[in-house]
Amino acid sequence: MSVRLRLTLWYAGLTALALILSSLALYVVLQQALTAETDSFLESKARDLAASTQIVGGPLYAEVRLPDLDRFVEADVYAQVINKDGNVLDESMSMDAAGLPMDPNAVAVALRGQTSVQTVTIRGLHIRVYTTAFYVHQNQPLVLEVGRNFQPIEDTLNWLQRALAIGDLILVALASGVGWWIAGWSLRPIARITKTVQSIGDSQRLDQRVEYHGPTDQIGELVYTFNRMLDRLEASIAAQRRFIADASHELRTPLTTLRLNVELLRRDRSAEPPERAEVLDDVASELDRLARLAQGLLDLARADAGLHLEKQLVRADEIVREVYHQVKPTANGVALHVADLVPINLYANPDYLKQLLLTLVDNALKYTDSGGQVRLDVERDDRWVKFVVSDTGRGIASEDLPHIFERFYRARSVRRQRGTGLGLAVAQWIAREHGGHIAVQSEPGRGSSFTVWLPAN
Questions:
Q1: Total count of domains within the chain
Q2: Is 332 in contact with 300 (CB distance < 8 Å)?
Q3: What is the pLDDT of residues 389-410, one digit of tens each?
Q4: Domain for residue 5, yes or no?
Q5: Is 155 helix (H, G, I), strand (E, B) or coil?
């Protein structure tokens, strides 16, 4: 079942329910109003008839003189007076000398002092009968019955019932047609979205977008969200393609070097030991580069897969001290300094935090000439633990600063030096996984300062 049909059925069903309830309410209210008006009319007639009854004669002999009932009633109104024995004492001409109570049960009830109003059938006519007792002499009760033909009112109510039923059916049919049109008109943008999505899926062109010109309602939000998803998807696939291309390029160089060196060793088996050692050193260097590249690619693949690092309570000062002792032998004439360390605790992954600091310190040593300085500090700043790696090296050009955390990005001035272009990208991911970030300040020729901000708690 299509969405359009379901919406139409819901619309028609709700309309039908509203019409049925409103029709029932109208019918009941009108029925009660007409019945109440008839009952009020009969009660008024009975009160007037009772008030017009007279007693004639003396104290020893008295006679009840009834009023002329025909003067009080119309053609469709009936009246009669009944004694306690159930005999009719007088009746209006409209009763056509029936000589019987209109409602015998109501007469018995009235003699017990209770007034009643009932609908009875006399000679095929539905008559609304008001029955009450009144006293005129020596506490002898008389029963007064006043009735009115209720058939016209019932006919009117039956006509109203049929009219409401037919009208409700017509309105439900009309509502269904209108609902079908409104549902189609409302879902037209959805159809365009579906067509565009199918086109994108068939053509694999992620540069297409869904065009929408309308209010910012749910459909507008859907189009906006879908277009944003396409933007992110297009950017993600473009980054993936660029990543694959860059990784292929980075892998090609060491693999080519390794292949050439191995071929050289295979062809020149009589090479002197110094020459063989030089070739083997070159092979070892390229293998080390391949290992770093593979580790970087693995870390970034884990990041793209949504890996979340497990954290524990660690000593930041101890990790800084481990980094210092590990990189100090590779300083190569660069003075490496560590600030006075005080115990600082934070929740972090010790292995990845150490990898982050090693990356920053290794870069600082790599781009600082002999005789320069590299400094590693850690301190607590309110709610943050701040790691600072600063150097007096070559610095970073302003046009390169916005891109240094991109994968495989390397500034022109350092592209000939060893490196994979993945270290800072991995370092930024590690910082973000800890809920922090890396800030950079650099000036060409005067050095750089990398500050890692991690939450203390």
A1: 3
A2: no
A3: 999 988 888 888 888 887 766 6
A4: no
A5: helix
